[in-house]
Fold:
Amino acid sequence: MFPYEVEYNFTLTIVKEATRLFTPAYNSHKNIETKESSSDLVTETDKAIEKLISSRIKEKFPDHVFIGEETVSDDGKVVFGNNPTWIVDPIDGTMNFVHRYPHTCIVIGFSVNKEVQFGVVYNPVLDHLYTGRRGYGAQLNGFPLCVTGETKLNKALLLCEMGGRRDEETLAIKARNITAVCVEPDACHGLRMQGSAALNMCAVAAGHADGYFEFGMHIWDMAAASVILSEAGGVILSPIAGEEFNLLKRRVIAASSVELGTVLQSKIQSIEYTSD
Structure:
């Protein structure tokens, strides 16, 4: 039996409850606030869903640690240690949510001893429920997930994002990275931007894409999806060769194989962000 079955089943329940806040708001007028930049948004629904999830967790597991995007945005502190820890993004892809673009999701991960034990990523618009439990595989709506196993860049469909930091220097690096993976003679098949780190990683897990790289996301964007991807046979690397992947470092390569991940490391330039 999965050792965190109680917490996992509880998560499925509160995700359904959170969906009752998400769904009516998706097609309604939204009160929008700006955080770090004009492309970094938060809505009243982000806050309401996080408040709901946080309160339910505190009622059920009062001794557990909670890390949530909007909570951290208020006080600026991420406490990620060995204690049982819930890592929550109430809406990943808030920009998509605001524009009613259907790649947006509710994200909940659970870690013990700094290792993510399970993750749940749910897109209520498309009714796509991605789940992963360490040692027990990953699923999409109950069907097993498996990466493509692609090893060649010139046969790979890739994902990346523009991110929230839009200064000229950062955008220039991003443009060079896009060129590096798209230029002949070793050009990838294509490059897509979906607007959600969690769903991008899940797309690699599901075999819908072969690789993904990004800089500037946070622990709540990656934690749940990281275990989904690894349980589907994928690999998670730092974009910096020789550096161990760290959820707090705000950079990731997610790939269908070590070989493809290594090629991406050799092609793209890292962008420095302050760690969570």
Remarks:
- The first strand starts at residue 32 and ends at 34.
- The chain has a mean pLDDT of 95.
- The radius of gyration is 18 Å.
